[in-house]
Amino acid sequence: MNGKRQMILLNEITKLNTKQAGWEPYAWYKEMRDNSPVYYDAEQDVWNVFLYDHVKRVLFDHELFSNKKQRSLIPIPDRLESRSNVNLVDPPDHRKRRALLSQAFTPRSLKEWEPRIQGIVDELIANMEGFLTIDIVEKLAIPLPVTVIADLLGVPSQDRHLIKGWSDILFLPYNTEAYADIDRRKGIAMKEFVEYLYPIVLKKRQHPEDDIISDLTKAELEGERLTDEEVVMSAIGLLGAGNETTTTLLSNIFYSILYDGPNVYQQLKADLSLVPNAVEEVLRFRFPASMDRRVAQDTNVFGPQMKEGQAIVAWIGAANRDESQFANADIFDIHRSGNQRHLAFGAGPHFCLGAPLARMEANMALASFVKRFAGIHRVEAFDVGEHLTESIAGQSLTSLPIGLQT
Ligand code: HEM
């Protein structure tokens, strides 16, 4: 199913071959920033940039670095490359496609969603009552984003286990050894997911409700309504973009509070207004994302000669630790000013459409949690290396046990 699009395999560039090393790639990022900031990987014919200014330039400059590409880091299923796909196109066409989706993410719609999201957060926190130890990934980081997206798209939230299962498989990263098996599983997941969504789209076209799928059935692109297939693919695309990423953010927030700095929880407890800045600091400090582009013209903007058609990876997680932008960048500091200049949501024309939603979910979840629990503590036996899985955003936690004080 992914025959057309050749994958760029990041762990073959980093050579960080254990899961644990993938979880803490920051020493490697530093080495690259200091010694090989513009690095050519000959095995895969891929350029790599690590400095903040370079990464930002790659993300902004669509004339030199295009999103119309034949190779990719993110395993985007072929069927998602439809006319309504917002990510695989450059301006000016990009603007029309983005306008279709962006109505759903205006500040007004977010305001309307606020009580729905708070309701989901409250329910998840109520489910933690009475436990001395919980797995925060299972209790919050997984269910919150998938329930929110299911609700906003207008698909039944009791089906969230199905949706999460399909979305995990569809966006599973490829690796060389299990390529054929992963591809086969993705094919099955896509077929099942499409069969599940189709009747929902047909129903909403006839009887629109207050949700994004209904909006998409009414939306027009170049004077024509989107087809059922295009609506289905847009819905799957939104799930792919917003589900696992937000789960990773929520898990990493709790990991950073427990392991990356002293007394962070008590500082938040004493002053809840620190919550939004703490969330931004996690996005800066512990979100090892990368994005890729196609070099669209021969160029030497970064020094070495890059040729049209080559791939380039912008290492966002490395840019976010660049000392030229963030003093003491390797220190996790929830009081840091200016940390929202991080690039975890991208930059330029493709800047994350869901950033306000992800921020709202994370801020609400963290504030409500801190209000409810007097303290949290590490579980001694926890060994991070045994609780990691590969994900498109680098290594992510499969579970994170935390002790609760009520
Ligand atoms: C912590 C959570 C999230 C992170 C770190 C994140 C990160 C990103 C990044 C880095 C990009 C830029 C891609 C590029 O430059 O090619 C992006 C684009 C996008 N994101 Fe997010 N995202 C998050 C959550 C969400 C959510 C919740 C949604 C929607 C429900 C969403 C929808 C999108 C869409 C539609 C795009 C494509 C925009 C375009 O190409 O114009 N994201 N995201």
Structure in words:
- The protein has one domain: Cytochrome p450, CATH 1.10.630.10.
- Helix content is 48%, strand content 12%.
- It has 16 helices and 14 strands.
- The N and C termini lie far apart (49 Å).
- The mean pLDDT is 91.
- Protoporphyrin IX containing FE (HEM) is lined by residues 59, 86-87, 98, 101, 149, 238, 241-242, 245-246, 249, 287, 289, 291, 344-346, 350, 352-354, 357-358.
- Residues 59, 86-87, 98, 101, 149, 238, 241-242, 245-246, 249, 287, 289, 291, 344-346, 350, 352-354, 357-358 line the site of protoporphyrin IX containing FE (HEM).
Please name the defining characteristics of this protein.
Cytochrome p450; 16 helices; 5-stranded mixed sheet; alpha+beta; 406 residues; binds protoporphyrin IX containing FE; globular
Identify low-pLDDT runs.
none
Biggest sheet details: 5 strands, mixed
Helicity level, as a percent range? 40-55%
- SS-derived structural category: alpha+beta
The Rg value, from CA coordinates, equals: 21 Å
How do the strands line up in the largest sheet?
2-3-10-9-4
Summarize this entry quickly.
The protein is an alpha+beta fold and 406 residues long. It has helices spanning 11-14, 19-23, 26-35, 52-60, 93-102, 107-126, 136-141, 143-153, 160-170, 179-206, 212-218, 228-259, 264-270, 275-285, 316-319, 355-372, and strands at residues 6-7, 38-41, 46-49, 65-66, 71-72, 133-135, 220-221, 224-225, 290-295, 311-315, 375-378, 388-391, 394-397, 401-405. It has a single domain, classed as Cytochrome p450, CATH 1.10.630.
